[in-house]
Design brief:
CATH topology of the largest domain in chain A: Jelly Rolls
CATH superfamily of the largest domain in chain A: Jelly Rolls
Strand order of the largest sheet of chain A: 1-2-8-3-6
Oligomer: homodimer
Shape of chain A: globular
Number of domains of chain A: 2
Number of helices of chain A: 11
CATH class of the largest domain in chain A: Mainly Beta
Structural class of chain A: alpha+beta
Largest interface: A-B, 49 and 50 residues
Distance between the termini of chain A: 36 Å
Largest sheet of chain A: 5 strands, antiparallel
CATH architecture of the largest domain in chain A: Sandwich
DNA sequence: CGGCAAGTTGAGCCAGGTCAACTCCGGTGG
DNA sequence: CCACCGGAGTTGACCTGGCTCAACTTGCCG
Protein backbone atom coordinates (compact mmCIF):
# COMPACT_ATOMS: atom_id res chain seq x y z
CA UNK A 1 0.00 0.00 0.00
CA UNK A 2 1.71 3.15 -1.19
CA UNK A 3 1.02 6.82 -1.53
CA UNK A 4 -0.17 7.69 -4.97
CA UNK A 5 2.42 9.45 -7.13
CA UNK A 6 1.23 12.62 -8.78
CA UNK A 7 1.43 11.34 -12.31
CA UNK A 8 -0.21 8.00 -11.63
CA UNK A 9 -3.77 9.26 -11.70
CA UNK A 10 -3.32 10.58 -15.22
CA UNK A 11 -2.97 7.11 -16.60
CA UNK A 12 -5.54 5.54 -14.33
CA UNK A 13 -8.66 4.18 -15.85
CA UNK A 14 -10.88 5.63 -13.15
CA UNK A 15 -9.75 9.03 -14.31
CA UNK A 16 -9.22 8.48 -17.99
CA UNK A 17 -12.64 7.23 -18.90
CA UNK A 18 -15.14 9.94 -19.69
CA UNK A 19 -17.56 8.29 -17.32
CA UNK A 20 -14.86 7.82 -14.69
CA UNK A 21 -15.30 9.14 -11.22
CA UNK A 22 -12.00 10.98 -10.88
CA UNK A 23 -12.46 12.57 -14.28
CA UNK A 24 -15.21 14.67 -12.74
CA UNK A 25 -13.02 16.18 -10.04
CA UNK A 26 -11.37 19.56 -10.18
CA UNK A 27 -7.68 20.11 -9.42
CA UNK A 28 -7.99 20.63 -5.70
CA UNK A 29 -10.39 17.76 -5.22
CA UNK A 30 -8.22 15.34 -7.05
CA UNK A 31 -5.04 16.32 -5.25
CA UNK A 32 -6.80 16.12 -1.90
CA UNK A 33 -8.18 12.73 -2.75
CA UNK A 34 -4.83 11.52 -4.03
CA UNK A 35 -2.94 12.71 -0.96
CA UNK A 36 -5.17 10.85 1.43
CA UNK A 37 -5.72 7.74 -0.67
CA UNK A 38 -3.46 4.79 -1.27
CA UNK A 39 -2.81 2.62 -4.23
CA UNK A 40 -1.98 -1.04 -4.02
CA UNK A 41 -1.51 -4.04 -6.22
CA UNK A 42 -3.03 -7.39 -5.39
CA UNK A 43 -1.80 -10.72 -6.69
CA UNK A 44 -4.26 -13.38 -7.75
CA UNK A 45 -5.71 -15.05 -4.72
CA UNK A 46 -4.99 -12.37 -2.16
CA UNK A 47 -7.85 -11.09 -0.08
CA UNK A 48 -8.51 -7.57 1.03
CA UNK A 49 -8.05 -7.99 4.78
CA UNK A 50 -10.83 -7.05 7.13
CA UNK A 51 -8.59 -4.73 9.16
CA UNK A 52 -7.57 -2.79 6.07
CA UNK A 53 -11.20 -2.69 5.10
CA UNK A 54 -12.01 -0.79 8.28
CA UNK A 55 -9.44 1.88 7.50
CA UNK A 56 -9.96 1.85 3.73
CA UNK A 57 -13.47 0.68 2.99
CA UNK A 58 -13.74 2.29 -0.42
CA UNK A 59 -11.98 0.55 -3.23
CA UNK A 60 -11.84 1.73 -6.80
CA UNK A 61 -10.49 -0.72 -9.33
CA UNK A 62 -8.13 0.55 -11.97
CA UNK A 63 -7.16 -2.76 -13.51
CA UNK A 64 -7.77 -6.45 -12.97
CA UNK A 65 -10.68 -8.32 -11.43
CA UNK A 66 -11.90 -8.54 -7.86
CA UNK A 67 -14.42 -11.08 -6.70
CA UNK A 68 -16.81 -11.13 -3.80
CA UNK A 69 -16.56 -14.61 -2.38
CA UNK A 70 -18.72 -16.48 0.05
CA UNK A 71 -17.49 -19.57 1.78
CA UNK A 72 -19.78 -22.24 3.15
CA UNK A 73 -19.08 -24.26 6.25
CA UNK A 74 -18.11 -27.37 4.33
CA UNK A 75 -15.78 -25.67 1.88
CA UNK A 76 -18.14 -24.93 -0.99
CA UNK A 77 -17.13 -21.60 -2.40
CA UNK A 78 -19.10 -19.08 -4.43
CA UNK A 79 -18.12 -16.01 -6.34
CA UNK A 80 -21.15 -13.85 -5.78
CA UNK A 81 -20.03 -10.84 -7.79
CA UNK A 82 -17.27 -9.68 -10.10
CA UNK A 83 -15.85 -6.17 -9.98
CA UNK A 84 -14.02 -4.80 -13.00
CA UNK A 85 -12.04 -1.62 -13.70
CA UNK A 86 -14.11 1.47 -12.99
CA UNK A 87 -16.18 -0.17 -10.26
CA UNK A 88 -16.20 1.49 -6.88
CA UNK A 89 -16.74 -0.90 -4.01
CA UNK A 90 -18.16 0.82 -0.96
CA UNK A 91 -17.69 -1.43 2.04
CA UNK A 92 -18.26 1.19 4.70
CA UNK A 93 -19.68 -0.46 7.74
CA UNK A 94 -19.61 -3.93 6.21
CA UNK A 95 -17.76 -6.82 7.75
CA UNK A 96 -16.61 -9.71 5.54
CA UNK A 97 -18.59 -11.88 7.93
CA UNK A 98 -21.78 -10.50 6.53
CA UNK A 99 -20.93 -9.68 3.01
CA UNK A 100 -18.25 -12.04 1.83
CA UNK A 101 -14.57 -11.60 1.13
CA UNK A 102 -12.99 -9.48 -1.55
CA UNK A 103 -10.44 -11.57 -3.38
CA UNK A 104 -8.42 -10.66 -6.45
CA UNK A 105 -8.77 -13.05 -9.39
CA UNK A 106 -5.82 -11.63 -11.28
CA UNK A 107 -3.12 -9.06 -10.75
CA UNK A 108 -5.24 -6.12 -9.74
CA UNK A 109 -4.49 -2.48 -9.15
CA UNK A 110 -6.80 -0.73 -6.77
CA UNK A 111 -7.11 2.75 -5.37
CA UNK A 112 -8.02 2.82 -1.70
CA UNK A 113 -9.93 6.05 -1.51
CA UNK A 114 -10.02 8.03 1.66
CA UNK A 115 -13.59 7.61 2.91
CA UNK A 116 -13.79 11.11 4.35
CA UNK A 117 -12.66 12.74 1.13
CA UNK A 118 -14.86 10.45 -0.92
CA UNK A 119 -17.82 11.36 1.23
CA UNK A 120 -17.02 15.05 0.97
CA UNK A 121 -16.72 14.88 -2.80
CA UNK A 122 -19.99 12.99 -3.07
CA UNK A 123 -21.69 15.70 -1.07
CA UNK A 124 -20.28 18.64 -2.94
CA UNK A 125 -19.68 17.54 -6.52
CA UNK A 126 -22.93 16.55 -8.22
CA UNK A 127 -21.22 15.12 -11.29
CA UNK A 128 -18.95 12.87 -9.32
CA UNK A 129 -21.91 11.92 -7.20
CA UNK A 130 -23.89 10.95 -10.26
CA UNK A 131 -21.08 8.75 -11.54
CA UNK A 132 -20.76 6.99 -8.21
CA UNK A 133 -24.51 6.59 -7.87
CA UNK A 134 -24.86 5.15 -11.34
CA UNK A 135 -21.98 2.80 -10.76
CA UNK A 136 -23.64 1.54 -7.61
CA UNK A 137 -26.95 1.16 -9.43
CA UNK A 138 -25.23 -0.84 -12.13
CA UNK A 139 -23.77 -3.09 -9.48
CA UNK A 140 -27.23 -3.57 -8.04
CA UNK A 141 -28.92 -4.43 -11.30
CA UNK A 142 -26.03 -6.60 -12.35
CA UNK A 143 -26.35 -8.56 -9.13
CA UNK A 144 -30.10 -8.84 -9.57
CA UNK A 145 -29.71 -10.03 -13.15
CA UNK A 146 -27.13 -12.50 -12.01
CA UNK A 147 -29.54 -13.81 -9.40
CA UNK A 148 -32.08 -14.32 -12.14
CA UNK A 149 -29.51 -16.24 -14.17
CA UNK A 150 -28.62 -18.48 -11.29
CA UNK A 151 -32.14 -19.13 -10.15
CA UNK A 152 -33.77 -20.86 -13.06
CA UNK A 153 -31.35 -21.17 -15.93
CA UNK A 154 -29.64 -24.35 -16.99
CA UNK A 155 -25.89 -24.65 -17.31
CA UNK A 156 -25.72 -23.86 -21.02
CA UNK A 157 -28.06 -20.91 -20.58
CA UNK A 158 -26.04 -19.51 -17.71
CA UNK A 159 -22.87 -19.71 -19.73
CA UNK A 160 -24.53 -17.99 -22.68
CA UNK A 161 -25.72 -15.19 -20.39
CA UNK A 162 -22.25 -14.88 -18.99
CA UNK A 163 -20.75 -14.45 -22.42
CA UNK A 164 -23.13 -11.56 -23.01
CA UNK A 165 -22.29 -10.13 -19.62
CA UNK A 166 -18.63 -10.15 -20.62
CA UNK A 167 -19.44 -8.42 -23.85
CA UNK A 168 -21.56 -5.80 -22.15
CA UNK A 169 -18.89 -5.04 -19.58
CA UNK A 170 -15.77 -5.21 -21.68
CA UNK A 171 -14.03 -1.92 -22.28
CA UNK A 172 -13.02 -2.28 -25.89
CA UNK A 173 -16.18 -2.57 -27.92
CA UNK A 174 -14.90 -4.51 -30.85
CA UNK A 175 -17.17 -5.21 -33.72
CA UNK A 176 -16.27 -8.77 -34.61
CA UNK A 177 -17.89 -10.37 -31.57
CA UNK A 178 -14.62 -11.27 -29.92
CA UNK A 179 -15.11 -11.64 -26.22
CA UNK A 180 -12.42 -11.61 -23.59
CA UNK A 181 -13.26 -13.79 -20.61
CA UNK A 182 -11.49 -12.10 -17.72
CA UNK A 183 -11.55 -15.04 -15.32
CA UNK A 184 -10.39 -18.63 -15.22
CA UNK A 185 -12.58 -21.66 -15.68
CA UNK A 186 -12.67 -22.45 -11.98
CA UNK A 187 -13.69 -18.90 -11.10
CA UNK A 188 -16.24 -18.90 -13.85
CA UNK A 189 -17.71 -22.09 -12.47
CA UNK A 190 -17.91 -20.61 -8.99
CA UNK A 191 -19.52 -17.46 -10.35
CA UNK A 192 -22.15 -19.39 -12.26
CA UNK A 193 -22.81 -21.86 -9.51
CA UNK A 194 -21.62 -24.87 -11.44
CA UNK A 195 -18.69 -27.26 -11.64
CA UNK A 196 -15.58 -26.58 -13.76
CA UNK A 197 -16.31 -29.83 -15.55
CA UNK A 198 -19.74 -28.59 -16.53
CA UNK A 199 -18.35 -25.27 -17.75
CA UNK A 200 -15.94 -27.16 -19.93
CA UNK A 201 -18.65 -29.40 -21.32
CA UNK A 202 -20.87 -26.42 -22.11
CA UNK A 203 -18.12 -24.56 -23.94
CA UNK A 204 -17.50 -27.74 -25.89
CA UNK A 205 -21.15 -28.09 -26.83
CA UNK A 206 -21.38 -24.50 -28.04
CA UNK A 207 -18.26 -24.93 -30.06
CA UNK A 208 -19.54 -28.15 -31.64
CA UNK A 209 -22.80 -26.45 -32.48
CA UNK A 210 -20.76 -23.69 -34.17
CA UNK A 211 -22.24 -21.03 -31.91
CA UNK A 212 -18.91 -19.89 -30.58
CA UNK A 213 -15.28 -20.47 -31.39
CA UNK A 214 -12.66 -20.85 -28.67
CA UNK A 215 -9.67 -18.80 -29.76
CA UNK A 216 -7.66 -19.55 -26.66
CA UNK A 217 -8.45 -20.20 -23.04
CA UNK A 218 -9.62 -16.67 -22.34
CA UNK A 219 -10.84 -15.44 -25.71
CA UNK A 220 -13.86 -16.56 -27.62
CA UNK A 221 -15.62 -15.39 -30.71
CA UNK A 222 -19.37 -15.55 -31.11
CA UNK A 223 -20.21 -17.07 -34.45
CA UNK A 224 -23.96 -17.11 -34.12
CA UNK A 225 -25.20 -14.25 -31.98
CA UNK A 226 -28.96 -14.84 -32.36
CA UNK A 227 -28.78 -18.47 -31.32
CA UNK A 228 -26.54 -17.64 -28.38
CA UNK A 229 -29.05 -15.00 -27.36
CA UNK A 230 -31.92 -17.41 -27.65
CA UNK A 231 -30.10 -19.84 -25.45
CA UNK A 232 -29.36 -17.10 -22.92
CA UNK A 233 -33.04 -16.19 -22.93
CA UNK A 234 -34.01 -19.73 -22.11
CA UNK A 235 -35.37 -20.79 -25.48
CA UNK A 236 -35.41 -24.56 -25.56
CA UNK A 237 -35.82 -24.91 -29.32
CA UNK A 238 -32.44 -23.82 -30.56
CA UNK A 239 -31.23 -27.24 -31.52
CA UNK A 240 -33.41 -28.40 -34.36
CA UNK A 241 -33.75 -24.93 -35.74
CA UNK A 242 -32.73 -24.21 -39.31
CA UNK A 243 -31.35 -20.72 -39.71
CA UNK A 244 -33.00 -19.05 -42.64
CA UNK A 245 -32.42 -15.45 -41.84
CA UNK A 246 -30.50 -13.92 -38.98
CA UNK A 247 -32.97 -11.14 -38.44
CA UNK A 248 -35.89 -13.45 -38.56
CA UNK A 249 -35.55 -14.41 -34.93
CA UNK A 250 -37.29 -12.22 -32.43
CA UNK A 251 -34.68 -11.57 -29.81
CA UNK A 252 -34.47 -9.62 -26.61
CA UNK A 253 -31.99 -6.84 -27.00
CA UNK A 254 -29.67 -7.50 -24.12
CA UNK A 255 -26.03 -6.78 -24.50
CA UNK B 1 -52.21 7.26 -9.53
CA UNK B 2 -53.23 10.21 -7.39
CA UNK B 3 -51.79 13.37 -5.98
CA UNK B 4 -50.55 12.89 -2.47
CA UNK B 5 -52.76 14.43 0.21
CA UNK B 6 -50.96 16.63 2.70
CA UNK B 7 -51.55 14.41 5.68
CA UNK B 8 -50.65 11.16 3.98
CA UNK B 9 -46.91 11.56 4.30
CA UNK B 10 -47.19 11.82 8.06
CA UNK B 11 -48.31 8.24 8.34
CA UNK B 12 -46.07 6.92 5.62
CA UNK B 13 -43.36 4.54 6.56
CA UNK B 14 -40.80 6.23 4.34
CA UNK B 15 -41.21 9.28 6.52
CA UNK B 16 -41.96 7.78 9.87
CA UNK B 17 -38.94 5.58 10.25
CA UNK B 18 -35.94 7.34 11.74
CA UNK B 19 -33.84 6.00 8.88
CA UNK B 20 -36.51 6.95 6.36
CA UNK B 21 -35.68 9.12 3.41
CA UNK B 22 -38.49 11.65 3.75
CA UNK B 23 -37.81 12.00 7.45
CA UNK B 24 -34.63 13.83 6.53
CA UNK B 25 -36.35 16.50 4.48
CA UNK B 26 -37.26 19.96 5.69
CA UNK B 27 -40.69 21.47 5.24
CA UNK B 28 -40.16 23.03 1.85
CA UNK B 29 -38.41 19.99 0.44
CA UNK B 30 -41.12 17.65 1.54
CA UNK B 31 -43.94 19.79 0.22
CA UNK B 32 -42.16 20.24 -3.09
CA UNK B 33 -41.58 16.51 -3.35
CA UNK B 34 -45.15 15.74 -2.39
CA UNK B 35 -46.63 18.17 -4.88
CA UNK B 36 -44.77 16.67 -7.79
CA UNK B 37 -44.99 13.05 -6.76
CA UNK B 38 -47.84 10.60 -6.99
CA UNK B 39 -49.04 7.83 -4.80
CA UNK B 40 -50.64 4.67 -6.06
CA UNK B 41 -51.82 1.34 -4.84
CA UNK B 42 -51.02 -1.86 -6.69
CA UNK B 43 -53.00 -5.07 -6.41
CA UNK B 44 -51.20 -8.39 -6.27
CA UNK B 45 -50.04 -9.33 -9.72
CA UNK B 46 -50.07 -5.92 -11.34
CA UNK B 47 -46.95 -4.73 -13.03
CA UNK B 48 -45.51 -1.28 -13.07
CA UNK B 49 -45.92 -0.44 -16.73
CA UNK B 50 -42.94 0.54 -18.80
CA UNK B 51 -44.52 3.79 -19.96
CA UNK B 52 -45.22 4.88 -16.39
CA UNK B 53 -41.68 3.92 -15.58
CA UNK B 54 -40.40 6.44 -18.06
CA UNK B 55 -42.35 9.23 -16.43
CA UNK B 56 -41.96 7.97 -12.87
CA UNK B 57 -38.81 5.91 -12.63
CA UNK B 58 -38.31 6.34 -8.89
CA UNK B 59 -40.51 4.25 -6.68
CA UNK B 60 -40.50 4.32 -2.91
CA UNK B 61 -42.43 1.58 -1.18
CA UNK B 62 -44.55 2.47 1.79
CA UNK B 63 -46.27 -0.86 2.29
CA UNK B 64 -46.44 -4.25 0.66
CA UNK B 65 -43.95 -6.15 -1.48
CA UNK B 66 -42.69 -5.56 -4.98
CA UNK B 67 -40.74 -8.12 -6.94
CA UNK B 68 -38.33 -7.80 -9.81
CA UNK B 69 -39.27 -10.56 -12.19
CA UNK B 70 -37.47 -12.04 -15.15
CA UNK B 71 -39.28 -14.13 -17.68
CA UNK B 72 -37.59 -16.69 -19.87
CA UNK B 73 -38.59 -17.50 -23.41
CA UNK B 74 -40.28 -20.76 -22.47
CA UNK B 75 -42.27 -19.41 -19.54
CA UNK B 76 -39.90 -20.08 -16.67
CA UNK B 77 -40.22 -17.17 -14.28
CA UNK B 78 -37.82 -15.87 -11.68
CA UNK B 79 -38.18 -13.38 -8.90
CA UNK B 80 -34.74 -11.85 -8.87
CA UNK B 81 -35.26 -9.42 -6.02
CA UNK B 82 -37.77 -8.43 -3.39
CA UNK B 83 -38.39 -4.83 -2.39
CA UNK B 84 -39.98 -4.07 0.95
CA UNK B 85 -41.26 -0.90 2.65
CA UNK B 86 -38.53 1.72 2.83
CA UNK B 87 -36.79 0.58 -0.33
CA UNK B 88 -36.31 3.13 -3.05
CA UNK B 89 -36.19 1.65 -6.53
CA UNK B 90 -34.33 3.86 -8.96
CA UNK B 91 -35.18 2.77 -12.49
CA UNK B 92 -33.97 5.90 -14.27
CA UNK B 93 -32.83 4.95 -17.69
CA UNK B 94 -33.71 1.29 -17.28
CA UNK B 95 -36.09 -0.55 -19.52
CA UNK B 96 -37.90 -3.66 -18.27
CA UNK B 97 -36.34 -5.35 -21.28
CA UNK B 98 -32.99 -5.19 -19.61
CA UNK B 99 -33.77 -5.30 -15.98
CA UNK B 100 -36.93 -7.28 -15.51
CA UNK B 101 -40.45 -6.29 -14.58
CA UNK B 102 -41.63 -4.77 -11.32
CA UNK B 103 -44.62 -6.72 -10.11
CA UNK B 104 -46.50 -6.36 -6.85
CA UNK B 105 -46.77 -9.53 -4.77
CA UNK B 106 -49.41 -8.15 -2.46
CA UNK B 107 -51.48 -5.04 -2.09
CA UNK B 108 -48.74 -2.45 -2.25
CA UNK B 109 -48.67 1.29 -1.67
CA UNK B 110 -45.95 3.12 -3.51
CA UNK B 111 -44.86 6.70 -3.81
CA UNK B 112 -43.82 7.67 -7.33
CA UNK B 113 -41.27 10.31 -6.61
CA UNK B 114 -40.64 13.10 -9.04
CA UNK B 115 -37.21 12.32 -10.46
CA UNK B 116 -36.21 15.96 -10.79
CA UNK B 117 -37.07 16.76 -7.19
CA UNK B 118 -35.47 13.52 -6.00
CA UNK B 119 -32.32 14.40 -7.88
CA UNK B 120 -32.33 17.91 -6.50
CA UNK B 121 -32.77 16.69 -2.94
CA UNK B 122 -30.01 14.14 -3.36
CA UNK B 123 -27.70 16.90 -4.50
CA UNK B 124 -28.50 19.38 -1.79
CA UNK B 125 -29.45 17.42 1.30
CA UNK B 126 -26.54 15.27 2.51
CA UNK B 127 -28.61 13.40 5.07
CA UNK B 128 -31.26 12.39 2.60
CA UNK B 129 -28.49 11.50 0.19
CA UNK B 130 -26.87 9.26 2.76
CA UNK B 131 -30.13 7.43 3.40
CA UNK B 132 -30.71 6.87 -0.29
CA UNK B 133 -27.12 5.79 -0.86
CA UNK B 134 -27.20 3.34 2.01
CA UNK B 135 -30.51 1.96 0.84
CA UNK B 136 -29.05 1.37 -2.60
CA UNK B 137 -25.95 -0.25 -1.09
CA UNK B 138 -28.15 -2.55 0.95
CA UNK B 139 -29.98 -3.53 -2.21
CA UNK B 140 -26.66 -4.29 -3.84
CA UNK B 141 -25.30 -6.43 -1.05
CA UNK B 142 -28.62 -8.13 -0.61
CA UNK B 143 -28.63 -9.06 -4.28
CA UNK B 144 -25.04 -10.26 -4.06
CA UNK B 145 -25.80 -12.35 -1.00
CA UNK B 146 -28.81 -13.74 -2.75
CA UNK B 147 -26.67 -14.71 -5.70
CA UNK B 148 -24.39 -16.54 -3.32
CA UNK B 149 -27.37 -18.39 -1.88
CA UNK B 150 -28.63 -19.42 -5.27
CA UNK B 151 -25.29 -20.44 -6.67
CA UNK B 152 -24.17 -23.28 -4.47
CA UNK B 153 -26.70 -23.89 -1.75
CA UNK B 154 -29.07 -26.80 -1.62
CA UNK B 155 -32.81 -26.37 -1.29
CA UNK B 156 -32.93 -26.70 2.48
CA UNK B 157 -30.00 -24.33 2.88
CA UNK B 158 -31.57 -21.75 0.63
CA UNK B 159 -34.78 -21.84 2.59
CA UNK B 160 -32.88 -21.48 5.87
CA UNK B 161 -31.05 -18.45 4.48
CA UNK B 162 -34.33 -17.00 3.36
CA UNK B 163 -35.81 -17.30 6.81
CA UNK B 164 -32.89 -15.31 8.16
CA UNK B 165 -33.28 -12.78 5.38
CA UNK B 166 -36.89 -12.31 6.46
CA UNK B 167 -35.82 -11.86 10.03
CA UNK B 168 -33.14 -9.36 9.12
CA UNK B 169 -35.51 -7.30 7.00
CA UNK B 170 -38.66 -7.42 9.04
CA UNK B 171 -39.69 -4.18 10.67
CA UNK B 172 -40.84 -5.37 14.05
CA UNK B 173 -37.88 -6.93 15.78
CA UNK B 174 -39.65 -9.34 18.03
CA UNK B 175 -37.68 -11.35 20.50
CA UNK B 176 -39.38 -14.71 20.31
CA UNK B 177 -38.05 -15.63 16.86
CA UNK B 178 -41.36 -15.27 15.12
CA UNK B 179 -40.85 -14.62 11.46
CA UNK B 180 -43.37 -13.22 9.06
CA UNK B 181 -42.91 -14.54 5.54
CA UNK B 182 -44.19 -11.71 3.36
CA UNK B 183 -44.67 -13.74 0.19
CA UNK B 184 -46.58 -16.79 -0.94
CA UNK B 185 -45.12 -20.21 -1.49
CA UNK B 186 -45.10 -19.86 -5.27
CA UNK B 187 -43.28 -16.53 -5.08
CA UNK B 188 -40.88 -17.90 -2.54
CA UNK B 189 -40.09 -20.77 -4.85
CA UNK B 190 -39.47 -18.40 -7.73
CA UNK B 191 -37.27 -16.23 -5.56
CA UNK B 192 -35.18 -19.16 -4.40
CA UNK B 193 -34.96 -20.79 -7.79
CA UNK B 194 -36.84 -23.89 -6.82
CA UNK B 195 -40.23 -25.53 -7.24
CA UNK B 196 -43.19 -24.88 -4.91
CA UNK B 197 -43.22 -28.61 -4.23
CA UNK B 198 -39.65 -28.47 -3.01
CA UNK B 199 -40.34 -25.45 -0.81
CA UNK B 200 -43.16 -27.34 0.75
CA UNK B 201 -41.03 -30.43 1.34
CA UNK B 202 -38.26 -28.37 2.92
CA UNK B 203 -40.63 -26.61 5.31
CA UNK B 204 -41.96 -30.00 6.24
CA UNK B 205 -38.51 -31.39 6.90
CA UNK B 206 -37.55 -28.46 9.12
CA UNK B 207 -40.75 -28.81 11.02
CA UNK B 208 -40.26 -32.53 11.51
CA UNK B 209 -36.74 -31.91 12.73
CA UNK B 210 -38.19 -29.41 15.23
CA UNK B 211 -36.09 -26.58 13.83
CA UNK B 212 -39.06 -24.40 13.02
CA UNK B 213 -42.75 -24.40 13.73
CA UNK B 214 -45.30 -23.38 11.12
CA UNK B 215 -47.81 -21.14 12.88
CA UNK B 216 -49.84 -20.49 9.76
CA UNK B 217 -49.09 -20.18 6.09
CA UNK B 218 -47.15 -16.94 6.46
CA UNK B 219 -45.81 -17.08 9.98
CA UNK B 220 -43.17 -19.33 11.36
CA UNK B 221 -41.29 -19.55 14.61
CA UNK B 222 -37.68 -20.62 14.80
CA UNK B 223 -37.32 -23.22 17.51
CA UNK B 224 -33.65 -23.97 17.07
CA UNK B 225 -31.76 -20.93 15.83
CA UNK B 226 -28.23 -22.40 15.92
CA UNK B 227 -29.14 -25.41 13.83
CA UNK B 228 -31.05 -23.29 11.35
CA UNK B 229 -28.01 -21.06 11.09
CA UNK B 230 -25.71 -24.01 10.57
CA UNK B 231 -27.95 -25.22 7.78
CA UNK B 232 -27.99 -21.76 6.21
CA UNK B 233 -24.21 -21.71 6.38
CA UNK B 234 -23.98 -24.96 4.52
CA UNK B 235 -23.02 -27.23 7.34
CA UNK B 236 -23.80 -30.77 6.31
CA UNK B 237 -23.60 -32.32 9.77
CA UNK B 238 -26.69 -30.94 11.38
CA UNK B 239 -28.68 -34.12 11.32
CA UNK B 240 -26.92 -36.47 13.66
CA UNK B 241 -25.94 -33.70 16.01
CA UNK B 242 -26.99 -33.80 19.64
CA UNK B 243 -27.55 -30.38 21.12
CA UNK B 244 -25.69 -30.08 24.36
CA UNK B 245 -25.41 -26.37 24.69
CA UNK B 246 -26.83 -23.68 22.48
CA UNK B 247 -23.78 -21.51 22.69
CA UNK B 248 -21.46 -24.35 22.02
CA UNK B 249 -21.84 -24.08 18.27
CA UNK B 250 -19.57 -21.70 16.51
CA UNK B 251 -21.84 -19.79 14.26
CA UNK B 252 -21.50 -16.99 11.77
CA UNK B 253 -23.33 -13.98 13.06
CA UNK B 254 -25.63 -13.24 10.17
CA UNK B 255 -29.06 -11.94 10.88
C1' DC C 1 12.32 -30.65 -19.90
C1' DG C 2 10.39 -31.91 -15.45
C1' DG C 3 6.68 -30.76 -12.26
C1' DC C 4 2.50 -28.99 -10.95
C1' DA C 5 -1.78 -26.59 -11.54
C1' DA C 6 -5.53 -25.94 -14.74
C1' DG C 7 -8.51 -27.83 -17.69
C1' DT C 8 -10.90 -31.82 -20.07
C1' DT C 9 -13.21 -36.27 -20.69
C1' DG C 10 -15.89 -40.30 -19.22
C1' DA C 11 -19.10 -43.12 -16.16
C1' DG C 12 -22.27 -43.46 -12.52
C1' DC C 13 -25.50 -41.50 -9.30
C1' DC C 14 -28.62 -38.44 -6.66
C1' DA C 15 -31.06 -33.93 -5.38
C1' DG C 16 -34.54 -31.88 -6.91
C1' DG C 17 -37.46 -31.09 -11.05
C1' DT C 18 -41.74 -32.90 -13.22
C1' DC C 19 -46.27 -34.65 -13.43
C1' DA C 20 -50.47 -36.04 -11.49
C1' DA C 21 -53.64 -36.55 -7.84
C1' DC C 22 -55.26 -34.79 -3.81
C1' DT C 23 -56.45 -31.47 0.14
C1' DC C 24 -57.24 -27.06 1.95
C1' DC C 25 -59.18 -22.62 2.09
C1' DG C 26 -61.36 -18.20 1.04
C1' DG C 27 -64.73 -16.11 -1.70
C1' DT C 28 -69.32 -16.10 -3.91
C1' DG C 29 -73.94 -16.73 -4.99
C1' DG C 30 -78.33 -19.09 -4.34
C1' DC D 1 -76.02 -20.88 5.85
C1' DC D 2 -74.15 -24.04 2.90
C1' DA D 3 -72.75 -25.81 -1.64
C1' DC D 4 -69.76 -24.77 -5.01
C1' DC D 5 -65.66 -23.28 -7.24
C1' DG D 6 -60.91 -22.18 -8.32
C1' DG D 7 -56.50 -21.20 -6.92
C1' DA D 8 -52.84 -22.33 -3.56
C1' DG D 9 -50.49 -25.67 -1.34
C1' DT D 10 -49.15 -30.56 -0.39
C1' DT D 11 -47.90 -35.36 -1.21
C1' DG D 12 -46.15 -39.30 -3.86
C1' DA D 13 -43.67 -41.59 -7.79
C1' DC D 14 -40.74 -41.14 -11.33
C1' DC D 15 -36.92 -39.21 -14.17
C1' DT D 16 -33.00 -36.34 -15.58
C1' DG D 17 -29.37 -32.51 -15.55
C1' DG D 18 -25.51 -31.82 -13.70
C1' DC D 19 -22.54 -33.14 -9.63
C1' DT D 20 -18.97 -36.41 -8.28
C1' DC D 21 -14.95 -38.93 -8.69
C1' DA D 22 -11.21 -40.53 -11.16
C1' DA D 23 -8.14 -40.63 -14.98
C1' DC D 24 -6.19 -38.15 -18.39
C1' DT D 25 -4.18 -34.06 -21.22
C1' DT D 26 -2.55 -29.52 -21.61
C1' DG D 27 0.00 -25.58 -20.67
C1' DC D 28 2.81 -22.68 -17.84
C1' DC D 29 7.03 -21.57 -15.20
C1' DG D 30 11.35 -22.33 -13.53
Amino acid sequence: MTKIPTNKCQHCFINADAGGFCGQLDGSEISELRNLSRSSTLKRGTAVGSEELLMWPIIAISSGVISMQHLLEDGRKTIAALFLPGDIIDMRGMSPRHSGHLIALSRTEVCRMSPTIFEKIIETNPNAQRIAWNNLRKQTYRAIDHSADLAKKQALEKLASFIFECRRRQRSKVSDNSIHVPVRRVDLAEYLGMQPETVSRCFREMEQRKIIQLMDISNIKILNVPTLRRIANGDKNTKNLRRTNKDHFKVLSYG
